Structure formats: C-alpha cells, structure tokens
C-alpha cells in the first residue's frame, strides 16, 4: 500500500508528486486544501516512504493509486498531479472515469517527453553513501552536476538517516537508473477523459507548449489550460498562492 498523509474532511482530493519528489513537497498546500476537502497526499511507488519495487511504469503507478482508493473506500475523487504525478493522474482518470470527478494536471502534457534528467541522475549516482557523507558533503558532490540551488534543495529533501551516521535517499535510485525511459512515455492514444480537466503550466516552463493544446483537447475534450506567469516547472512551489487560487476556483 502507498504511504499517504490524510488531512481534512469532505470530498476526497488526491495529490500526486513529480519524479524524485514525495508527499512532503505538498504539505503546505495540502493543509490549505484540507479546509474544503479530505486531502490524501501520496508517495508514489519507489518514492518517499512507499514501497520499492523493480516494477515501475505509469500503468502500475496508476493501478497503485486505484487500489489505494479502493482500500480507503474513496469515490468521486478530485485529483491533482504534478509532472510525473500528472501523467499518473491522467492515466488513472482515463482508465477509471467513474472514480474521478475533476482532474488537475500541473505542468505536464499527455505527449512523449525525451530523457532530460541525465545530469540529475549523474549527480545522485556520484554520492557514495558507503563513505558516510554528511548532508553538506552530499550537497557539495551534487553541486558539480546540479548547479541550480533550488533543484538541489528539492533533491536534498529525500535524504534521511537510515541509521545513526548513515544517510540514504528515500527514492529507489537503482530502479530509476535502468527504468528512466518510463518517465517520458506518452498517454496511450485512445485514452480519453470527458469530465472537467484543468491544465496549469508555468510561464517559464517548456513542458506544455501552445502547440500541445490540440493533443491535450483530443484526450481531454472538457479541458482548460491556464498559465502562471514568471514560474518554471515547479509552479506550485514558486507561486503557491496563485496555484491554490486557480485550483480552488476550478474545484468549486
């Protein structure tokens, strides 16, 4: 079963993080949404505190979330997914439209994305935990590969003390190293969700281009696409106020 943090009461609202993220990334926004919904922030397979497995694909992650809903007797859910979590949310909604009321997708489209995490993976793999590095040691190693401070801080949140004096990453890096191509696969061509859907993109991000709108509409005919200006791919972290406002008004 997937690890989750549950807060609030009312109609269920599930939140799915992006690649190399976890439920903690959504803690503040989750608490805000919990004033109106029963919020379930999940750790997806091979991330956070959820199960580690050799199996890793959108199909199996969407099935994980479906089984989570069954186990918690959730129905008529709203779901927010960012990046990789957005692809999981799209697949869940198209496979089980009877389960999903409204879908919110943050800065990802249904199209194919080429591999673009090579530098991040190189930085993560450069850390040798057998040498018992400190947190500052880990950051120093990663900085050579990942110069962007914000990205490094995002990744550093995955560090935890496996035992006294021994750090580790919460995510399953070994599986990501040989299953990376799974992150870019497109939504199946015949996948369609006809209920209300909101795509939110970052104005500085190139994940959803104007040229993608037609493809989005083919899969999600009742969709709207909004832009938060002056933010990149981590739009919900860079401008949580506007993100919250856009999602809240859509869910009302």
TrEMBL record:
The keyword Hydrolase applies. One of its GO terms (molecular function) is hydrolase activity. Gene3D superfamilies: alpha/beta hydrolase. It comes from the Bacteria. Residues 12-108 form the AB hydrolase-1 domain. Keywords: Hydrolase. PANTHER family: PROTEIN ABHD11. This is Alpha/beta fold hydrolase. The lineage of its organism: Bacteria, Pseudomonadati, Bacteroidota, Flavobacteriia, Flavobacteriales.
């Amino acid at each position: 079963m997937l690890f989750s943090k549950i807060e609030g009461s009312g109609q269920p609202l599930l939140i799915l993080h992006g690649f190399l993220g976890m439920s903690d990334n959504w803690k503040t926004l989750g608490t805000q949404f919990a004033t109106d919904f029963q919020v379930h922030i999940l750790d997806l397979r091979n991330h956070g505190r959820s199960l580690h497995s050799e199996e890793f694909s959108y199909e199996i992650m969407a099935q994980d979330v479906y089984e989570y809903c069954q186990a918690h007797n959730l129905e008529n859910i709203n779901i927010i997914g960012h990046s990789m979590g957005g692809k999981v949310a799209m697949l869940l909604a198209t496979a089980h439209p009877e389960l999903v009321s409204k879908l919110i997708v943050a800065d990802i489209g249904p199209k194919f994305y080429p591999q673009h995490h090579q530098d991040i993976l190189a930085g993560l793999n450069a850390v040798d935990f057998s040498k018992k590095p400190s947190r500052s040691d880990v950051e120093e190693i990663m900085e050579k590969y990942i110069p962007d401070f914000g990205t490094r801080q995002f990744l550093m949140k995955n560090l935890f003390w496996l035992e006294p004096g021994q750090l580790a990453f919460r995510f399953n890096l070994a599986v990501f190293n040989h299953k990376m191509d799974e992150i870019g696969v497109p939504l199946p061509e015949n996948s369609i969700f006809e209920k209300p859907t909101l795509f939110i993109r970052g104005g500085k991000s190139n994940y959803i281009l104007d040229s993608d709108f037609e493809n989005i509409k083919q899969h999600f005919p009742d969709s709207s696409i909004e832009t938060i200006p002056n933010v990149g791919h981590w739009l919900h972290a860079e401008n949580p106020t506007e993100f919250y406002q856009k999602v809240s008004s859509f869910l009302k």
